[in-house]
Amino acid sequence: MSATHTIVNLPDQRTATLPKRNYLNNEDGLLSWLFTGDHKRIAILYLISITFFFFIGGAFAGLIRLELLTPQPDLVASDTYNKFFSMHGIIMIFLFLVPSVPATLGNFLIPIMIGAKDLAFPKVNLLSWYLYWIGGLFTMAALVLGGVDTGWTFTTPLSTHYLNTHVVTAATGVFIIGFSSIFTGLNFIVTIHRMRAPGMTWFRMPLFCWSNYAASILMVLGTPVLAITLVLVALERLVGIGVFDPTKGGDPLLFQHLFWFYSHPAVYIMILPGMGVISEVISTFSRKRVFGYTAVAFSSVAIALFGFFVWAHHMFIMGVSNYSALVFSLLTMLVAVPSAIKIFNWAFTLQKGSITFETPMLYAFGFLGLFTIGGMTGVFLGALGMDIHLTETYFIVAHFHFVMVGGMLMAFLAGIHFWWPKMTGRMYPESLSKLAAVTTFIGFNLTFLPQFILGYLGMPRRYHAYPPEFQVLNVLSTAGATVLGVGYMLPLLYLGWSLKYGAIAGNNPWQATGLEWQIQSPPLTENFIETPVVDHEAYDYEWLAHKTAQEVTTVG
Amino acid sequence: MDNAIVATHPHTHETAVAAEHEHVVLPQHRHHFETKEQQREAATFGMWLFLLTEIMFFGGLFFAYLLYRNWYHDAFVVSSNQLSIPLGAANTAILISSGFFMALGVWAAEVQKKGLLVLFLVLTTFFGVAFLGIKAVEYHEKWEKHHIPGAHFDVSEFINPQAYGLKEKPLAPDMAQKTQVFFFLYFAMTGMHAFHMILGIGLLFWLTWRANRGEFSSGYVAPIENFGLYWHFVDIVWLFLFPLLYLINRHPGS
Q1: A30-75 pLDDT per residue, tens
Q2: Which residues of chain B are within 8 Å of residue A187 when distances are taken between CB atoms?
Q3: How far is residue A231 from each of residues A169, A226, A269, measured CA to CA in Å?
Q4: How many CB atoms lie within 10 A of CB B174?
Q5: Interface mutation target, options A213, A248, A519, A552, chain B, most CBs of B under 10 Å
Q6: CA-to-CA distance for B142 and B137, rounded, in angstroms?
Q7: Is A471 on the interface with B (CB under 8 A)?
Q8: Out of B6, B60, B180, whose CB is closest to A242?
Q9: Cis, peptide link before residue A157, omega less than 30° from 0
Q10: How many other C-beta atoms lie within 10 A of the C-beta of residue A102?
């Protein structure tokens, strides 16, 4: 037993090389990437694109925090500030959070995890990526032409009557990105239903597949409603029809209902795939089967279903009736149950596990702490009376950043670090990656914990100036954002470095059980030479030990 | 036995190419499917899911319709009386005929009769275009009567129906304004439906061209079957739109 207590199992670096033939070098040239049908290559295309948009969205976050460093509005005027937070929201939600894990890790891993050669519809998969870019370019065009200042929600009548900015361009962008997400979800559902290898039953499937499956259901059912809502906003703005305009008999509240019918489930589209990543990472680094596998699998589906019945909690202060507010308050709290099932089951998985703290595990622990805080403050907001006090304050901002950034982004980084050896065949420098994980965690807390207090004290969101007594907390928050920014830049640097200089990872550096770890890294274009026959459950470490022992005797 | 579970060993280029070739049965058979049946099932399942997203897409409009119909009942009754039942009924009959020929087309593809398939696809297209032609006539009439929502919209007809020779109950000015919501929903819903038909007719041209080359006469019928599902879905949407917009609360006037 070594003192560092590590499970990383790398091949002998003096003799190890990357496999001669793999999906990265199977074909050469830019065109072979732009017209590829290979789910792994499309995942890489997505990874690059999503990272690009993440840093643009992050730059806007930086500008927002910079403006809020002082109480006076001294950096930008109010309408420019509005454009900053609108672009930050639109880019981060639609171009980063929604596609992040499904389109990169999901695309790469789901076919391999279930023993298939590709997703069911490779061309549709590539089309999704193009739609993502076309939508992204529309959004960028809206930004370059003068920006949008509606916030990411495009709320009417603000978006349709009172602003003279590029709402239609941005809405078109989001509409197109929506179809990208619909096609990704559709592809996952069909693949998981129809293309599992022999023996890969539903309850032998890794939890990552389950959670992406649940998120796909939300994408397929929710996104079209957002699409039609944006069409209506665009028509109202362009042609002057009155479906949301009270002066013509329309109702702005209808917009809110339709919008949140998608956008609340969208929160679960963002978080569910991240929960899948956490299940894989926690199981691997505690060397144990996920406790209550079936409960964790079904809780994903339960979150997806409940997710459709809670939208009106966004409208408690907008004139919905007391009775419906009461019902939606109750339903909202019900979502906490399947989420808590997951958290408790992960905790039980860790209990008496043989835990090691590799980089993905550090991010996963970050996820557990931050997501729990995010989730529990969500219960505050689901409670009717508290919600009325806290709505439109920085408490809300802190809450959803804890869920989205503390939860989803931590999970995304955990997943990228976990599967990086599989995707590239190389390891990254371990001390640096651990430093990045810790920096991110500290920076995150320093940024968003003060915002809970600010919100509780009554600082409203979306203002670019504030009373001087809030300055100390805002300075703390901005300082935290700087640390957080460093935490995000670090992986970009060392992961880029590792592409050329990283140690050769071998097939299974983490000694994990999933099918993806039993093939070469980076994988072949066709994933499996012959279709695998699965005869063991997910996370079956005894099967793995048996198999490894047998291989050793065969080779030795 | 265990070693056969998953292939982990490196292998040569030749074995992989050979493995790829083994699976190729038809030119349309994609290499990542194990069997032809699996490919066909995946395509059909994907199409059904896509239609589910379409239901949600139209669902937003149906939701708006139900809500506003409930609130502005009188305005909706008067406005729906402005729509022509004969034209709507003719369109319903035409669309059902089109769907009928599409169903025959799927049958023709399945029994591998190329000539019949092309004929039925052409007939489907013909009735689809006829539907759109009638829709254009109806839209034109709305334009002339100033019933297109937006700046051009005129409610005087509903405030003072006698002056226009209508037998409707006069509406109060604020309720008359709400007719605009009806006409907006009429255009949004039928327009979205017509947009789906235009896409469908485009696809029909493409499928007819491919059918004429004999692509669907060899047992590979998934594109025809799946397009058939899409076309029937478009029919069904109309079968909801026609009663909702034209027929409900229809009365001879008072």
Answers
A1: 999 999 999 999 999 999 999 999 999 999 999 999 999 999 988 8
A2: 46
A3: 11, 9, 22
A4: 11
A5: A248
A6: 9
A7: no
A8: B180
A9: yes
A10: 28
* Among chain A residues, CA nearest to B46: A190
Instruction: Please answer whether residues A186 and B50 qualify as being in contact, where contact means their C-beta atoms are separated by less than 8 angstroms.
Output: yes
Q: Which two tokens stand for residue A532?
A: 């695998």
Report the alpha-carbon distance of residue A404 to residue A394 in Å, rounded: 15
Across the interface, whether the CB atoms of B2 and A19 are under 8 A apart is answered no
Whole-Å CA distances, A520 to A280, A386, A423, B170, B201 = 19, 53, 10, 77, 47
Has residue B240 got a pLDDT over 90? Answer: yes
Of A493, A21, A492, A542, nearest in space to B10 by CA: A21
**For residue A522, cis peptide bond before it (omega within 30 degrees of 0):** yes
**C-alpha dist (Å) from residue A23 to A120, A136, B237:** 18, 27, 44
Fold that domain B35-247 belongs to in CATH: Four Helix Bundle (Hemerythrin (Met), subunit A) (1.20.120)
Helix H or strand E encompassing A384: helix A384-390
Mutate to test the interface with B, among A36, A241, A247 (most CBs of B within 10 A): A241
* List of E strands, A442-555: none
Asked if B207 contacts B194 with a C-beta cutoff of 8 angstroms, the reply is: no
Q: Could you tell me the pTM of the whole model? A: 0.92
Distance between CA A417 and CA A398 in Å, rounded?
Answer: 26
A460 three-state secondary structure: strand
Query: B78 is written with which tokens?
Result: 């008067």
pLDDT for position B6? 45
Per the DSSP assignment, residues forming a β-bridge with A460 are: A393
Overall average pLDDT of the A438-461 stretch: 96
Tokens at residue B203, please?
């696809």
CB-closest option in A189, A221, A529 to B56: A221
A532 Cβ under 8 Å from any chain B Cβ: yes
* Chain A residues near residue B67 by CB distance under 8 angstroms: 251, 254
Q: Which two tokens stand for residue A305?
A: 């279903």
CA distance A367 to A228: 34
Across the interface, of B49, B149, B177, the residue whose CB is closest to A241 is B149
Q: How many CA atoms lie within 13 A of B63 on its CB side?
A: 19
Q: Which residues of chain B neighbour A550 with C-beta distances below 8 Å?
A: 2-3
Q: In this structure, is the dihedral angle defined by the CA atoms of residues B76, B79, B82 and B88, taken in order, positive or negative?
A: negative
* From B190-194, B220-224, B237-241, the region with the lowest mean pLDDT: B220-224
pLDDT at B2 over 80: no
Amino acid letter at B192?
M
As for the ipTM of the complex, it is 0.89
Residue with token string 């980076």? A522
> A370, A444 in Cβ contact below 8 A?
yes
B45 touches chain A (CB under 8 A): yes
Residues 168-207 of A with CB under 8 A from B: 182, 186-187, 189-191, 193-195
Contact between residue B128 and residue B204 where contact means Cβ atoms under 8 Å apart: yes
Q: Measured between beta carbons, which residues in chain A are less than 8 angstroms from residue B41? A: 194
* Integer Cα distance of B125 and A315 in angstroms: 46
Whether the Cβ atoms of residue A366 and residue A437 lie closer than 8 Å to each other: yes
Residue B63's CB: how many other CB atoms inside 10 A?
16
